[in-house]
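Tokens as discussed.
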């Protein structure tokens, strides 16, 4: 499988009230679900929750040690969102869950090793959570206005083949493709449980005939991975990497009905001016 089999665009969850039915339906049909929100949308409910201490669990010391008030709040809300998301798909109470972390920082649900995979990303006010029962999953997010220097960083981020292809693009498209590649590699290495410990230059991507990202390695193991990049809230690129182990899946959803796929516009300004609706799959 060289194409992308996607669980669909990330679902917006505006608060503890959900919509969790949509998340559960996505999880049941596709084997995984990705949700996005902002910490501001959850802040009041999280702070007023009498179970906040229990929801933070083993994260409470890290929460208390954060020197910045905004950082503490964002940290707390991200963990609350993650527990609510996992609790929804498991049909249990968030406070009943115990989330720990592997040495690379990957969150895991204690008691579900090898059966449920989690990933968390946050940047600025955005929070993204992925939960999968079909295989390892990773998510990453970056503001579309972030300008990562290709000239300064391509040696650390790109394979020689990727760098050559990007160098031939116009500057605006180069910036868009480089940022997309960055989030894809971050999501993939997080799914592997390695995160930034693995050099991005050791991971190669190519683009199939439909403009979808696939691993440059053409082995059967590489073909088990699927990748998507979505524009969320008109402000953020969110990339997802997931390996399908064939476990815990219902029927394949293929492309979710109504999903729009579009190319990033040739725009020298911020990618937010592409005019794409929120949470749509991006190709460039």
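Sequence:
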């Amino acid at each position: 499988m060289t194409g992308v089999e996607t669980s669909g665009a990330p679902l917006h969850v505006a608060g503890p009230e959900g919509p969790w039915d949509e998340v559960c339906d996505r999880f049941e049909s596709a084997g995984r679900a990705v949700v996005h929100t902002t910490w501001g949308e959850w802040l009041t409910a999280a702070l007023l929750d009498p179970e906040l201490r229990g929801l933070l669990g083993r994260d409470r010391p890290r929460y208390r040690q954060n020197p910045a008030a905004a950082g503490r709040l964002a940290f707390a809300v991200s963990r609350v969102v993650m527990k609510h998301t996992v609790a929804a798909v498991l049909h249990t109470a968030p406070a009943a869950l115990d989330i720990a972390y592997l040495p690379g920082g990957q969150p895991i649900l204690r008691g579900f090793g090898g059966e449920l995979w989690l990933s968390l990303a946050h940047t600025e006010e955005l929070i993204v959570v992925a939960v999968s029962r079909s295989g390892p999953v990773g998510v990453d997010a970056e503001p579309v206005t972030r300008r990562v220097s290709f000239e300064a960083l391509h040696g650390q981020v790109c394979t020689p083949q990727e760098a050559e292809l990007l160098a031939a693009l116009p500057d605006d498209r180069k910036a868009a493709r480089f940022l997309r590649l960055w989030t894809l590699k971050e999501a993939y290495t997080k799914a592997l449980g390695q995160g930034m410990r693995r050099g991005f230059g050791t991971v190669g991507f190519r683009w199939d005939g439909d403009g979808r990202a696939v691993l440059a390695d053409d082995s059967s193991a590489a073909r088990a991975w699927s990748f998507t990049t979505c524009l969320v809230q008109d402000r953020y690129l969110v990339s997802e990497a997931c390996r399908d182990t064939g476990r815990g899946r219902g029927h394949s959803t293929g492309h979710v009905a109504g999903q729009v796929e579009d190319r990033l516009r040739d725009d020298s300004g911020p990618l937010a001016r592409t005019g794409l609706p929120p949470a749509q799959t991006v190709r460039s």
